[in-house]
Every structure is written in structure tokens, then in C-alpha cells.
């Protein structure tokens, strides 16, 4: 009897011990100031999730979390780097890993989910794209629950529990033979989190879709659909063929990709995705139509690799003859990267351009986006220094204050100086010191300010911080709804003009044909000049251009319907704004 009792007690001890290890915290470096605490429910639901798996996977599956702390801001590269540091600490073959992302601005600002699943049994049907959808579905549940807990640190465990429950539900569906249970919102979130740019407008699937096809004419997944915006309608298959032919004309390879939501469930999306990843073409352009079965409000997403090379080649095709010598200001405009104004890419590149404009205001002799031969990684072989001062010889590169960007910035500015001293007069270039600007404001983020630091010779960094003073009353965009469209249409008719011919043509247009546009732009510029938000920046023209490009849906849509890059379009819009400022 005593032996039986001892065995029973030992069994209970082992069960409790194993149960307590169902959920584990991976400590790569705890910087949040809080010791991780795992409550009973968190461990119980983790055990439930593991025991709910098919028997052959139970002993090989673990559930983990870790504090993914980014020292200098929520940098995507830093988040992924920390995840790669955490994964080797996992001692199970398969796992559910939850990253709790924090930075100096706050704890648990976001959550990332990584799954490593078996490729057999009930999981055999889970393709890479379906796994990504499942990861995003779990992350969404965690974010929603944490928000309902008022984003307080003590509420993080209950939020993770909800994510684990979602994993249990998904496994149950797989057991029932349901391999694709994703809502349109899950797919929408997946698109936004995987580098796709949302293009405002109306997309429509056409009848008789071809589905996924072999590589034919440089297009994978020839699903016919159209896109309408700004009064223009574009057949995206025809548009991709146009792009492919353009790049072929300059001896570059380009592949187009088309997909829709249903492709995620029948495996076609993975065919497109795999080719997109493995293709060695110079340019890859992917359109995905997010089709809403409940309405006609479909959304078009675009993803381009390599976007920087794409922009370089398109810009050089228009301005190549005039810029071929290098060692001159190009005024290349930034690429917003996304027209979702909360996007970190749009924040960064828009802010960088405002910093450039601020310096140009203070030092009129300076040059922006200065082309330096043999200093670039793009096909043009030009590097483009953000700011140069020909008088002092200073060269500056602007980067967000994140580890990866700082490292890249140091390398770039050093290379710019080396090559400029070989190719560009007066050959007395150096890495700049004593950058005169310490703060700028970005109209896309009215509650924040951007701290500027000259942290290394030639390297200027910016970091977003909450405004110390009350948020400014930023003037709203007031361009008449049809005026911007008229301006864009004007460019379509004058696309053959060189850069030097554009400026006098715009002066003539604004002075004699479209007073309304010139006056409206000028009024907006003056309103910004007189606004206390921008006293420190003094870059009204730059802010107007940034606002027009990044916030105006008509402009975003125009890039697709007109086949124009953000860089070329912004250079042209800048001429309009500068001319309006000078005319009135």
C-alpha cells in the first residue's frame, strides 16, 4: 500500500513538473525591467495545446515567448535579428514562438508569431503561405486582447493565452480536414505585414480567369483584372507586359506576378511566391488583388523587388542623358514605400527628405541627392549622397537611428567620400561634422517630433519621439480635388520633355493656364511658413511635396495607372510647388 502511494505521489509530481514546462520563456537579454511571470492559465493552455496535437508530435512540440527588445526603436531588421538569436535556444523540433516587441517608447508595442510545424500528418497541407496566415491570425488575436487589457504589462499573459487558444482552434480545424480557414481581414493583415504596398483605387477581377500559368511572356499567375483610379482604367496584365518590354529594351530582365485571395487556399499563391523568391531577374513586380466577396471594394497591392533598382532604371530612362556625367545634384525624390501613413518606411523616407529640405533652406549652395560615379550598388553605378556642401566639402548621409541603418550609413558615407575624391571636383570631400539641425517635424506624424543627431562624421540620424509641446494644428491639404488631377494629366501630355524643358513649361502653365492651382499651392505654403509647428524646420516647400506625395490617394493611384515611379513624379511635383512659391 505504501509503495502504491509513493508511486501515485511520484506520478503527480512528474505530471505537475511536466505541466509547468509546457510554456517556456527564452531569455536572450531581459532589458524591459520586468521579470517574466507565467500564470497558471498560461501553462495550462500551453499543455492543452500540446496535448491536443496528434500523438506523434506531442513530445516534439514546444511553446515559447521572449522579450524582443529593440534598443533604438521598432526596427524591422532588429526584430528579426533578435528572433534569430532566440530560435537556437529552443530545444524542441517544432514550436510556437511569440515575440513580445518593446523599445524605449514602451513595452509590448507589438507581437510577432513564428511557427515551425511538421510537414506530415494533418500539417501536410499547410504550405508556407498558409503558415504565414496562421502566424498572423494568432498575432492578431494577441494584439486585440492586449489592447482590450489597456496595453498594460500585467495583461500580456492573458493576451498570449488567447493566441494559444487560436492555435488550438486552428489545429482542431486541421483535424477536421479544413486546411484553409482564413478571413479576408487575416489576408489583408498578411499583405500589409509582408512588404506589399496598398494602392488606393478600385480593382475588379475579370471573368474567365486563367489561374496560375507557367512562365509565359514573363508573367506568373495570369489572372486578368483591371484597376481604376483618377478616371483611368488599367489592365494589369497589359501593364506588366509593358513593364517587361521596357526593361527588355534596356537589356534587363523583369517578371510579373499576379495573385488573388483564393490562391492562398488552393496552393497557387505558393507557386507565385516561390518563383518570386527564387527568380534571379533584375526586376520582379507582383500585383495581388484582395477581393472582397461581400462588396465591390477590392484592394490592389503591389510589391517590387528590387524597388531601388527599379526606380533607378526608370529615372535614368527619363533623365539619363542629362545625368550621365555624375557629380551633380539630381534632386531625386524619396520613395514613400507605402501610402499607409502609419508605415515606418513612409515615416523614414518622408522625414529624411524634410531634413534635406531644411538643410537646403539654411545652406542654399548645398546639393541634394548628389550623384557620385562608382559609388552605388544599383544598376546605374551611381551613389547618391543625401546632402553635400561644395563650399566646405562636407558629405552627409541620413538614416533612422537603428543599428542596421547606422552600420549601413557609416559604410555608405565613407564610400561616397572616397569615390567623390576620385571623380568629383574640387576633390576635397570629407565626412561632414557639426550638422546644424537638431529637430524637424513631419506632417504625417503631428503628435511627434524627430530628434536629429550627428552621431558619426558624415552620418545624421533621426528618431521619432512624442512632442514635448502640445501637438500642432497642421493645416489640411487644400488642393482642389480636380486640380491635382489636372497637374498629373499635364505631365502625361509632356512626358517627352527633358528636365531642363520642364521648368519653363511649368512656369508658363501656372502663370497663364492654371492660376487656381498656383494660388492654392502658394496659400498652403504660406500657411505652413506662418505655422509655429515649422519654425524650427523652415521647409514649407518640402513639407508640401511630402504631404502631396504621401497623403494624396490620387497621386498613389496615378503611379500605377501612368506607370510612373515615385521618384520621377515627386521631382515633377516639386517643380510645381517651387514655381507656385516663386510666382505669388
Instruction: Summarize model confidence as the mean pLDDT.
Output: 75
Main beta-sheet annotation: 7 strands, mixed
Distance between the termini: 101 Å
Write down the domain tally: 3
Strand-residue proportion: 15-25%
Number-wise, the strands total 18
Structural class: alpha/beta
Spans with pLDDT under 50 lasting ≥5 residues? 1-19, 319-324, 334-349
Fold and architecture overview:
It is a single chain. The protein is globular, with a radius of gyration of 27 Å. It has helices at residues 2-20, 40-51, 55-58, 76-86, 128-148, 156-175, 184-193, 236-249, 263-266, 268-278, 307-323, 344-362, 403-423, 483-493, 499-512, 515-529, 540-551, 553-561, 566-583, and strands spanning 23-26, 61-69, 94-103, 106-116, 197-205, 219-220, 225-229, 232-235, 254-260, 283-290, 298-305, 367-373, 382-389, 394-400, 430-431, 439-440, 448-456, 459-466. The chain folds into three domains: 20-182, Diaminopimelate Epimerase, Chain A, domain 1 (Roll); 189-305, no CATH class; 308-583, no CATH class. It contains 19 helices and 18 strands. It is of the alpha/beta class.
Secondary structure: elements and pairs:
Blueprint: H1 2-20, E1 23-26, H2 40-51, H3 55-58, E2 61-69, H4 76-86, E3 94-103, E4 106-116, H5 128-148, H6 156-175, H7 184-193, E5 197-205, E6 219-220, E7 225-229, E8 232-235, H8 236-249, E9 254-260, H9 263-266, H10 268-278, E10 283-290, E11 298-305, H11 307-323, H12 344-362, E12 367-373, E13 382-389, E14 394-400, H13 403-423, E15 430-431, E16 439-440, E17 448-456, E18 459-466, H14 483-493, H15 499-512, H16 515-529, H17 540-551, H18 553-561, H19 566-583
Parallel strand pairs: 1-2, 2-3, 6-9, 9-10, 14-15, 14-18
Antiparallel strand pairs: 3-4, 5-7, 5-11, 7-8, 10-11, 12-13, 13-14, 16-17, 17-18
Amino acid at each position: 500500500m505504501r509503495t502504491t502511494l509513493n508511486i501515485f505521489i511520484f506520478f503527480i509530481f512528474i505530471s505537475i513538473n511536466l505541466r509547468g514546462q509546457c510554456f517556456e520563456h527564452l531569455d536572450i537579454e531581459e532589458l524591459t525591467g520586468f521579470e517574466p511571470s507565467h500564470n497558471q492559465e498560461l501553462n495550462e493552455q500551453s499543455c492543452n495545446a500540446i496535448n491536443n496535437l496528434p500523438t506523434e508530435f506531442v513530445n516534439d512540440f514546444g511553446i515559447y515567448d521572449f522579450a524582443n527588445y529593440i534598443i533604438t526603436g521598432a526596427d524591422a531588421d532588429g526584430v528579426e535579428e533578435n528572433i534569430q538569436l532566440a530560435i537556437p535556444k529552443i530545444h524542441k523540433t517544432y514550436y510556437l514562438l511569440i515575440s513580445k516587441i518593446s523599445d524605449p517608447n514602451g513595452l509590448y508595442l507589438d507581437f510577432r508569431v513564428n511557427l515551425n510545424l511538421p510537414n506530415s500528418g494533418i500539417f501536410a497541407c499547410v504550405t508556407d503561405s498558409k503558415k504565414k496566415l496562421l502566424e498572423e491570425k494568432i498575432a492578431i488575436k494577441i494584439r486585440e486582447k492586449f489592447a482590450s487589457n489597456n496595453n498594460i504589462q500585467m495583461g500580456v499573459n492573458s493576451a498570449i493565452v488567447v493566441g494559444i487558444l487560436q492555435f488550438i482552434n486552428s489545429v482542431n480545424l486541421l483535424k477536421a480536414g479544413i486546411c484553409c480557414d482564413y478571413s479576408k481581414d487575416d489576408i489583408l493583415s498578411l499583405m500589409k505585414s509582408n512588404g506589399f504596398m496598398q494602392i488606393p483605387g478600385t480593382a475588379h477581377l475579370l471573368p474567365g480567369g486563367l489561374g496560375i500559368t507557367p512562365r509565359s511572356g514573363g508573367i506568373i499567375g495570369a489572372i486578368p483584372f483591371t484597376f481604376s483610379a483618377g478616371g483611368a482604367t488599367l489592365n494589369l496584365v497589359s501593364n506588366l507586359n509593358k513593364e517587361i518590354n521596357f526593361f527588355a529594351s534596356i537589356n534587363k530582365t523583369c517578371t510579373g506576378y499576379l495573385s488573388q485571395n483564393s490562391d492562398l487556399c488552393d496552393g497557387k499563391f505558393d507557386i507565385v511566391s516561390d518563383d518570386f523568391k527564387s527568380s534571379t531577374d533584375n526586376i520582379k513586380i507582383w500585383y495581388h488583388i484582395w477581393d472582397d466577396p461581400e462588396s465591390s471594394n477590392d484592394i490592389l497591392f503591389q510589391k517590387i523587388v528590387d524597388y531601388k533598382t527599379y526606380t533607378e532604371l526608370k529615372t535614368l530612362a527619363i533623365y539619363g542623358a542629362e545625368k550621365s556625367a555624375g557629380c551633380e545634384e539630381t534632386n531625386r525624390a524619396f520613395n514613400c514605400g507605402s501610402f499607409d501613413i502609419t508605415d515606418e518606411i513612409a515615416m523614414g523616407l518622408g522625414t529624411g527628405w524634410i531634413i534635406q529640405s531644411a538643410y537646403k533652406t539654411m545652406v542654399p549652395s548645398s546639393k541634394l541627392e548628389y550623384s557620385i560615379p562608382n559609388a552605388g550598388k544599383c544598376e546605374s553605378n551611381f551613389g547618391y549622397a543625401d546632402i553635400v556642401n561644395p563650399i566646405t566639402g562636407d558629405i552627409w548621409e541620413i538614416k533612422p537611428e537603428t543599428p542596421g541603418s547606422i552600420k549601413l550609413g557609416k559604410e555608405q558615407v565613407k564610400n561616397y567620400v572616397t569615390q567623390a575624391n576620385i571623380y568629383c571636383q574640387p576633390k576635397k570631400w570629407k565626412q561632414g561634422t557639426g550638422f546644424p539641425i537638431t529637430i524637424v517635424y513631419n506632417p504625417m506624424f503631428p503628435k511627434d517630433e524627430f530628434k536629429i543627431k550627428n552621431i558619426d562624421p558624415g552620418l545624421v540620424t533621426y528618431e521619432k519621439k512624442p512632442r514635448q509641446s502640445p501637438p500642432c494644428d497642421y493645416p489640411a491639404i487644400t488642393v482642389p480635388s480636380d486640380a491635382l488631377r489636372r497637374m498629373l494629366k499635364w505631365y502625361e501630355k509632356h512626358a517627352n520633355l527633358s528636365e531642363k524643358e520642364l521648368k519653363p513649361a511649368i512656369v508658363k502653365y501656372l502663370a497663364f493656364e492654371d492660376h487656381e492651382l498656383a494660388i492654392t499651392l502658394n496659400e498652403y505654403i504660406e500657411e505652413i511658413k506662418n505655422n509655429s509647428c515649422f519654425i524650427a524646420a523652415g521647409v514649407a516647400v518640402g513639407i508640401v511635396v511630402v504631404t502631396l506625395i504621401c497623403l494624396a490617394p490620387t497621386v498613389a493611384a496615378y503611379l500605377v495607372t501612368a506607370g510612373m515611379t515615385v521618384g520621377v513624379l515627386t521631382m515633377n511635383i516639386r517643380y510645381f510647388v517651387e514655381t507656385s512659391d516663386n510666382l505669388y
